[in-house]
Amino acid sequence: MSKSIVIAIDGPAGSGKSTAAKFLARELGFLYLDTGAMYRAVTYLALKYNIVEDTNSINDLVNKIFINLKYEDGVTRVFVDDEELTDKIRTFEVNSNVSIIAKIPEVRTALVDMQRKIASNNNLVTEGRDTTTVVFPEADLKIYLIASIAERAKRRLEEFRVKNPDITLAEVQKNLEERDRIDSSRAVSPLKKAEEAIVIDTTNMSIADEIDEVMKRIDLIKSESTI
Ligand code: DC
What we know:
- About 50% of the residues lie in helices and about 15% in strands.
- It is of the alpha/beta class.
- The strands form 2 sheets. A 5-stranded parallel β-sheet has the order 2-6-1-7-8, with helices on both faces. A 3-stranded antiparallel β-sheet has the order 3-4-5, covered by helices on one side.
- The radius of gyration is 17 Å and the shape is globular.
- It binds 2'-deoxycytidine-5'-monophosphate (DC).
- 2'-deoxycytidine-5'-monophosphate (DC) binds near residues 13, 35, 40, 131 and 179.
């Protein structure tokens, strides 16, 4: 079988990764792999079992579970064993703890392993913090999305308000800044631009503009290669 094709998109929270990755996957008929959903699933379970501060127990947990992702109708459905965690991983509480869990080297090793296994049989579009640098350093196309903190906070506020109408812009921005700080400064696989990644600033772009911009890059690559 020929090698699978990987398009990897990294960037901070709210930079527009999911929007671009989901659209591209649909357009190209590739699998969509949301690596953040995996870190969120481990975080949800660590909170549920009250082991967020207990690295040994988290390591035991992550080596026991298999996280199953099913992308359906625009949503990544997340399952661990028989439990569906799709909505449970998108809470403010998970958001506030996920960067702490994602810093643990054993957690990263286990999840990167699962991500590569998924890729071994599929052409895919993936997104996260280290998909261009660590998980798929040989990706066929690497994109690094950025946007201003004010714009990213505004985007996330709209999502959170659906579940939590009292949340403020300041709270969301503080949470994002803290996650950016931890994600970018951790020792293992910090969020950073891969040397060859194409940078797109989505601050002043509509979703349509963003997709247009990403598709232009794909068309360029397509004309030169096998995608
Ligand atoms: O993309 P997201 O907001 O769902 O990601 C949630 C967190 O998971 C993010 O703050 C950092 C972590 N993460 C990571 O460390 N590496 C990845 N490849 C994806 C996410």
